[in-house]
């Protein structure tokens, strides 16, 4: 009987040693994972904030285009002369829609300021033509199509 209890003791001791080794390995991997997660390559490099400074002329152009789009949308909602003003990405725009019968002229001006207190202006002019669509008017009023072309500058 003693022999079998000695064997059981040896097997039990071996299992305990294997469990200790497994526990140490798991703890080592967990600690390494935490260490490498906190020491990512991004945190090792100095933090540099990237800012894209847009050219003032490009900002003015973008603002003029935004004003043009707002004016076109306004004309599709209500076909009448109107003024529009607003801001787009830090630049200002003023747009005027002048309606005469089935033709409208939109002039949009974008203004942006540069870093050295210089200002840039960009002007867009388009003509919009409205015509009644064939078979239009689904019960909520007449249906129109719109054509847009660049206006000649004086």
Gap between N and C termini, in Å? 116 Å
What's the mean pLDDT score?
82
Shape: elongated
SSE pattern, N- to C-terminal: HHHEEEEE
Indicate the proportion of strand residues: 25-35%
Report the radius of gyration as a whole number of Å. Answer: 36 Å
Mind summarizing the main beta sheet? 5 strands, antiparallel
Number of strands: 5
Q: Treating each run of at least 4 consecutive H or I residues as one helix, how many helices?
A: 3
Percent of residues in helices comes to 40-55%
Secondary structural class: alpha+beta
Structure write-up:
This protein has a five-stranded antiparallel sheet with strand order 1-2-3-4-5, covered by helices on one side. The termini are far apart. The model is unreliable at 48-53 (pLDDT under 50). It has helices at residues 2-38, 41-44, 56-77, and strands spanning 82-88, 91-100, 103-113, 119-132, 144-150. The protein contains three helices and five strands. It is α+β, with helices and mostly antiparallel strands.
């Amino acid at each position: 009987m003693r022999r079998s209890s000695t064997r059981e003791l040896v097997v039990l001791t071996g299992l305990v040693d294997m469990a200790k080794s497994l526990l140490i390995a798991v703890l080592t991997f967990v600690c390494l994972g935490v260490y490498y997660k906190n020491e990512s390559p991004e945190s090792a490099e100095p933090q540099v904030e990237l800012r894209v400074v847009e050219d003032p002329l490009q900002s003015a152009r973008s603002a003029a285009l935004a004003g043009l789009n707002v004016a076109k949308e306004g004309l599709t909602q209500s076909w009448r002369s109107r003024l529009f003003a607003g801001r787009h990405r830090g630049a200002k725009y003023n747009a005027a829609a002048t309606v005469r019968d089935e033709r409208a002229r939109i002039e949009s001006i974008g203004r942006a300021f540069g870093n050295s207190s210089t200002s840039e202006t960009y002007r867009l002019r388009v003509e919009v033509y409205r015509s009644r669509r064939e078979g239009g008017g689904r019960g909520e009023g007449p249906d129109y199509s719109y054509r847009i072309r660049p206006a000649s500058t004086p």
